[in-house]
């Protein structure tokens, strides 16, 4: 069967100004959530390797729950479920940031745990032998080395979180995909619009990948 479809470049170009309105929301949700998620990741990552069970078990439970459930379910629970518990509505933007923060925090926790445990125990012994306390040894010797090893997986998580924001159109957040849906509803140019949306996501993630590679190279050069 012959297809009469022809890509409408003018329709694609015309959609760009409207779609660009969604980029600030995409970046705000992803990077706002990642910033909080990084703090959660450090906290729960370190707690997960603590020898005290009452610290380790809750951290492990958090990590497994948020790694083991889809982020779409998490944001729907936050947006539609939590209001029943707290007795008030939750803003879509807040729900999106919270979902990215909690989800990325669980994955970053595992990155932190793996990074810290990858450092040879002799490094800690060397710090203690120099008269440093355990806390000083960790933050002055262990953490800087571990963090350099964390940069690639942290970058991967940032890229994943940016792409995850595309799911939040289901709660009405005005990010890229939602803007595309609204535009398509009035123009019926789904192929062209989603093509542009994909290009915009690709531009964001490739730019971030380039920045992370530069950071990684500088980090390795300083070793």
From TrEMBL:
TM spans (from-to): 25-49, 61-82, 193-215
Keywords recorded for this protein, A-Z: Amino-acid transport, Cell membrane, Membrane, Transmembrane, Transmembrane helix, Transport
InterPro entries the UniProt entry points to: AA_ABC_transptr_permease_3TM, ArtM/GltK/GlnP/TcyL/YhdX-like, MetI-like, MetI-like_sf
Transmembrane helix as UniProt keyword: yes
Protein species of origin: Marinobacter xiaoshiensis
Subcellular location: Cell inner membrane; Cell membrane
Membrane topology: Multi-pass membrane protein
Protein name, entry field: Amino acid ABC transporter permease
Purpose: Part of the binding-protein-dependent transport system for glutamine; probably responsible for the translocation of the substrate across the membrane.
Family as reported in the entry's similarity comment: Belongs to the binding-protein-dependent transport system permease family. HisMQ subfamily.
Domain ABC transmembrane type-1: 23-212
């Amino acid at each position: 069967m012959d297809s009469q479809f022809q890509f409408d470049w003018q329709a694609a170009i015309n959609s760009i100004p409207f779609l660009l309105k969604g980029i600030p929301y995409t970046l705000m949700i992803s990077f706002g959530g990642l910033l909080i998620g990084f703090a959660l990741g450090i906290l729960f990552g370190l707690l997960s390797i603590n020898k005290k069970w009452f610290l380790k078990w809750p951290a492990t439970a958090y990590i497994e729950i948020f790694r083991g459930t889809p982020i779409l379910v998490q944001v729907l629970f936050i947006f539609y479920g939590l209001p029943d518990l707290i007795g008030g509505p939750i803003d879509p933007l807040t729900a999106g940031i919270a979902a990215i923060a909690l989800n990325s925090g669980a994955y970053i926790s595992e990155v932190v745990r793996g990074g810290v445990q990858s450092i040879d125990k002799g490094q800690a012994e060397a710090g203690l032998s120099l008269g440093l306390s355990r806390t000083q040894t960790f933050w002055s010797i262990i953490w800087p080395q571990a963090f350099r090893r964390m940069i690639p997986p942290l970058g991967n998580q940032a890229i994943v979180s940016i792409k995850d924001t595309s799911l939040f159109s289901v709660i009405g957040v005005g990010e890229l995909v939602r803007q595309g849906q609204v535009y398509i509803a009035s123009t019926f140019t789904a192929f062209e619009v989603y093509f542009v949306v994909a290009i915009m996501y690709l531009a964001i993630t490739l730019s971030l990948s380039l920045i992370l590679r530069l950071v990684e190279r500088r980090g390795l050069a300083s070793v």
